[in-house]
Amino acid sequence: MGLLDGKVALITGGARGMGASHVRLFLEEGARVVFGDVLDDEGKALAEETGAIYVRHDVTKPEEWARAADAAVEAYGKLDVLVNNAGILKFRRIADMAPEEFDRVVDVNLKGTWLGIKTVIEPMRAAGRGAIVNISSIEGFIGAAGLSAYAASKFAIRGVTKSAARELAPYKIRVNSVHPGAINTPMALDPDMMNEVDADSFVKSMVIKRFAKPVEVSHLVAFLASDKASYCTGSEFTVDGGLTTGAGY
Predict the structure, then answer these.
(1) Does position 248 have pLDDT exceeding 50, yes or no?
(2) Separation CA 79–CA 1 (nearest Å)
(3) Under a CB-based contact definition with an 8 Å cutoff, are residues 13 and 85 in contact?
(4) pLDDT at residue number 126
(5) Measured in whole angstroms, how far is the alpha carbon of residue 199 from the centre of its chain?
(6) Which of 21, 57, 191, 194 sits 20 to 30 Å CA-CA off 30?
(7) CA neighbours within 13 Å on the CB side: how many for 204?
(8) Burial annotation 35-69 (CB, 10 A radius, 16+ → b, else e)
(9) Which BP terms in the Gene Ontology apply to this protein (predicted)?
C-alpha cells in the first residue's frame, strides 16, 4: 500500500531538482502523475524514465494551466493533488535589480502559484476533495540580502495559502505550504548567489550541518498530499535542518 494510492497529481517544475524528486516519490507511493515544466528535454527524459506524463507548462500563462489540468483529467479521470513547485531565483541586490527582473520572479513564483490554485478548484470539486501543496521557502520567513524578489514572492505564497485554505475548505480542498531551507538543487546552487555567499559561515550557522537531499522535502510533500494529513490546512511546514530556529542565521 502506497501513501498516495489512487491519487492523481499535477506537479509543476517537475523536470529536474526538487520537482523531479517529487515526481519519483509520488509514483513510488502509488500516485499517477502529470508534471509540467519549460525544460522540454529534461521533462521528456524524466517521463520516459518514469512513465509519468510530461506537458510543457509555463506557469505564468492561464491557458497552459488549463491544458495541464485537462491533461490529468483526460488521462486519469480526475485530479486530486496539485504541487505548486515551479519557481525561479534571481540573486540581485535591490540597487542593481531591474524592475523587469523583479517582475519575472514574482510572476513565476507567486502568480504561477495563484493561477494553479485557481485552475484546480473545479476539477478538485468534481473529485469531491483535494490537496494543494505550495512550495515556498525559508526566505518566506526571514529574507536574505540579494533575494528581495524571491523573498517577496515566497512571503506572499504564505498569505495566498492561508486565504485559499479558508476559501476552499467547504469543498474539502486542503492547502498548505512547505518551506525548504538549504536543499541540494541546481536553483540553490545559483552561481551568482554562490559567489556572494560565504559557504563556510553558512554551513556553520546550520543546526543540521549539511544540505538536504531533495527527497527529504518530497517525503513531507507526499504526506501533505495524502489522506494522512486530513486535518492539516492553512499550515506552514519547514524542512530546513533548523535554520529558522534563530541559531545564528
Answers:
(1) no
(2) 20
(3) yes
(4) 98
(5) 25
(6) 57
(7) 6
(8) bbbbbeebbeebbeebebbbbebbbbeeebbeebb
(9) steroid metabolic process
Bridge partners of 53, per DSSP, are 34
231 is catalytic: no
What are the cell numbers at 49? 524514465
Question: Which CA distances in Å does 40 have to 56, 66, 69, 95?
Answer: 7, 18, 18, 34
Beta-carbon-side half-sphere exposure of residue 25 (alpha carbons within 13 Å): 23
Task: Encode 135-179 in three state secondary structure.
Answer: ECCHHHCCCCCCCHHHHHHHHHHHHHHHHHHHHHHHHCEEEEEEE
Is residue 57 within 8 Å of 65, Cβ to Cβ? Answer: yes
Task: List the catalytic residue out of 54, 76, 150, 231.
Answer: 150
Kindly report, residue by residue over 63-81, the tens digit of the pLDDT: 999 999 999 999 999 999 9
Third-level CATH fold of 8-245: Rossmann fold (3.40.50)
Alpha helix ranges (H) inside 78-147: 99-106, 112-127
pLDDT tops 60 at residue 247: no
Rounded to the nearest 10°, the torsion over CA 56, 138, 110, 82 is 50
SS3 at position 90: coil
* Identity of the residue numbered 82: L
pLDDT band, residue 245 (cuts 50/70/90) = confident
| Residue whose cell numbers read 524578489 | 149
